[in-house]
Amino acid sequence: MKEKGNADFFERTFHLKENGSTFKTEVLAGVTTFMTMAYILAVNPPMLADAGMDKGAVFTATALASCLATVLMALFSNYPFVLAPGMGLNAYFAYTVVLGMGYSWQIALTAVFVEGIIFIILSLTNVREAIFNSIPMNLKHAVSAGIGLFIAFIGLQNAGIVQANPSTLVSFISFGGEGIEMSSTGISALLALIGVLITAVLLVKNVKGGILIGILSTWIIGIICEFAGLYIPNPEVGCYSLLPDFSAGLSVPSLAPTFFKLDFSNILSLDFLVVVFAFLFVDVFDTLGTVIGVASKADMLDKDGKLPRIRGALLADAVGTTAGAVLGTSTITTFVESASGVAEGGRTGLTAWVAAILFAISLLLSPIFLAIPSFATAPALIMVGFLMISSILKVDFEDLTEAIPAFICIIAMPFMYSISEGISFGIISYVVINLVTGKVKEKKMPILMYILAILFVLKYIFL
Questions:
Q1: Quick one: average pLDDT of 166-192?
Q2: Residues near 352 by Cβ (< 8 Å), separated by ≥ 6?
Q3: Distance between CA 46 and CA 370 in Å, rounded?
Q4: How do beta strands 83-85 and 162-165 pair?
């Protein structure tokens, strides 16, 4: 009777059958999503520590803020989207605002806090929802495909398969080249390639949990290589031991050094407002892009290209950002890695709930989660990229006024390393091309598309 009661609770809360999912599928999807984005727990603390923040406190703030925002996503929208401090936004926080512009990290946190408050207001007044609904369906499909390329590129970089090259910007790793240590960076890239093949075979065989199994298999093979002496940890090149380190026990780092350390002394200065706007802009369109892309891939959009309950999703993001600033971390955003859980069949807030629980558990079991290497999660990102790029098949290539802006949107994301830039160029090109060719009246383009295009152009001129 108790098991039936639990099953009824999850059914009532998350409407699993209605969304074509099961409890087992949702749990697996939640674990997979968490595994593909657990790296944020390892990456965010040292990055914000460069800005002068306490690394342990940032770790705790990262886990707590991610947990809270993701729980809110499940409760407010019942979508399988998971949130955490955004990559790119944390770099802007640390290296541009603090180290570059000379602000203290307390003032930078205040800018994030103010941005979050503005977000809450925009979410409650339908502004963000209106922006989402105004974007044409072909561009929404393009966003999904572009994110696919972008996330695959991130995976290739994380594994060291693709590296910087002064002549061609990027190139394939040269295993015998200068600066490549085969026992660390070389074997990491090789293990990632093996992981891609393992994950690909599992997907072809339609093995449930194939992406998660691919992550764990790659990690285990890496541990075997470390025991065999084939993989030798070298922190100087970013290759650490693959074994969990429990030498410090299971204590949770104190939140005191960063909790509510806000500084409102420069809140009325022009520079402060510029910083707030920069955070605001990137977060708005990174979040919208991720939600559009993942929702499109999961067939969650209705026939008009709208996402039901989007207000709750955007509100969770906004409240998460505000709470994150109070706890002591940079802007919270919906993670593109949510696509990995969707690829595993996640369709409801139960996926997000499971990921949130794992973020909470990570506070105690941080040595395990921090030991998962980037080369083990890279194959998951690459395969998710493959799954998402299929959205390009839904773009109408017969109508060049739709296809060309979609193409520009798609290529801008990986080449400019930004989801928001892809959306910017997609919208600007869409408006200009349709305006010049006289297709505007025929398509009944929303006035908001003109406003967005003008705002994007002004951003490039003045920021």
A1: 83
A2: 30, 70, 71, 73, 74, 79, 80, 81, 82
A3: 12
A4: unpaired
Reported as a pLDDT band with limits 50, 70 and 90, residue 3 is low
Residue 384 has a pLDDT of 81
164 - beta bridge partners? 170
Tell me the pairing of strands 169-172 and 83-85. Answer: unpaired
Beta bridge partners of 170: 164
Name the amino acid, one letter, at 232. Answer: I
Give the model confidence (pLDDT) of 183-216 as tens digits.
Answer: 888 899 999 999 999 999 998 998 877 888 888 8
What residue type is assigned to position 26 of the chain?
E
226 in Cβ contact with 242 (< 8 Å): yes
CA dist 70 and 84 (Å) reads 8
Give the residue from 453, 437, 425, 426 showing the smallest Cα distance to 401. 437
Both tokens assigned to 192: 């990632």
Show the tokens assigned to 201: 């075979």
- Of residues 360, 307, 456, the one with CA closest to residue 71: 360
Cα 337 to Cα 202: distance, rounded to the nearest angstrom: 19
- 297-303: long-range pairs with CB below 8 Å, 24+: 297/144, 297/339, 297/342, 297/343, 297/387, 297/388, 297/390, 297/391, 298/80, 298/342, 298/347, 300/79, 300/347, 301/137, 301/140
Q: Which has more pLDDT, 264 or 237?
A: 264
For the chain, domain boundaries: 19-462
Higher-scoring residue by pLDDT: 299, 233:
233
User: What six digits make up the tokens of 45?
Assistant: 């603390």
At residue 102, does pLDDT exceed 80?
yes
